[in-house]
Amino acid sequence: MHSPLWRLIPPIQVSGSMQMAIDLWLLEQYVSGNHPPVLRFYTWDPVAISLGYHQRRWPQRWEDLRWQGMPIELVRRPTGGRAVLHDGDLTYMVVMSDPDAGEGTGAKRSPVPGYEAICEFLIAGWRSLGVELQYGRAGRGYRQTANCFATATGADLVLPSGDKFIGSAQLRRNGAVLQQGSMQLNPSPELFSEVFGTEGRVHSGLPVLSLPLEVLRERAIASLVESASRCFGVQLIPQPLSEGEWEKINCLGNQNLVCGEDS
């Protein structure tokens, strides 16, 4: 019996607003029945701060930040959560059938089981690289902080030290789910401090996380692709975006995904 086929889109490095347009377009295509489930990994160029879909407060100075002579892009994600600095990280996204579909509705429905059903491939992939992860627990001040990595929820993955390593968020639509997440590999302490007013934590004692950033990204992607295939029981078929797909995504990317003043 053949495994279900998923699409694996090779890594793409473009602006944050374009990355969000790609993810949203892929979700829409899956919901419409025009596209299989998809997994992809990507990086942000230029450096960006992404805001959660429902996040309505952030420091006004973020709108004028620059790094290495370039403006820092401020962009809104289609998924929830708090602000994430995309510098020295690796972002993943999954579009698939909602693991929790039909498991309750409204305020009584907990999203945590759905996160766990997807995050298992992250735990397995990083374990093969010598990094043990476990689910976090929400701190009291989660909604009072703008920084996603200041505290962890049950949807996030933390190191044995308690430091948050992967933050994830979802958008659920018509029986489908888009899950996005950032893996904090080697963020700049100076930039992290400039954005959030506190230093980013250094992951010590984990040899793989001391590798050069590009090498670490390559190893992480290879390990996570393999673990996703095993955990989801699927065959991942590499397929870059076509010219026709890029044209449709560009149209979506021209919509208002970049943040202006807080309102």
TrEMBL record:
Keyword Transferase included in the entry's annotation: no
Keywords of the record: Ligase
PANTHER family, sorted: OCTANOYL-[GCVH]:PROTEIN N-OCTANOYLTRANSFERASE, OCTANOYLTRANSFERASE LIPM-RELATED
Pfam families referenced in this protein's UniProt entry, alphabetically: LplA-B_cat (PF21948)
Family annotation (InterPro entries): aa-tRNA-synth_II/BPL/LPL, BPL_LPL_catalytic, Octanoyltrans_LipM/LipL
The protein's name: Lipoate--protein ligase family protein
Residue ranges constituting the BPL/LPL catalytic domain according to the UniProt record: 33-236
Signal peptide stretch: none
GO MF term set: ligase activity
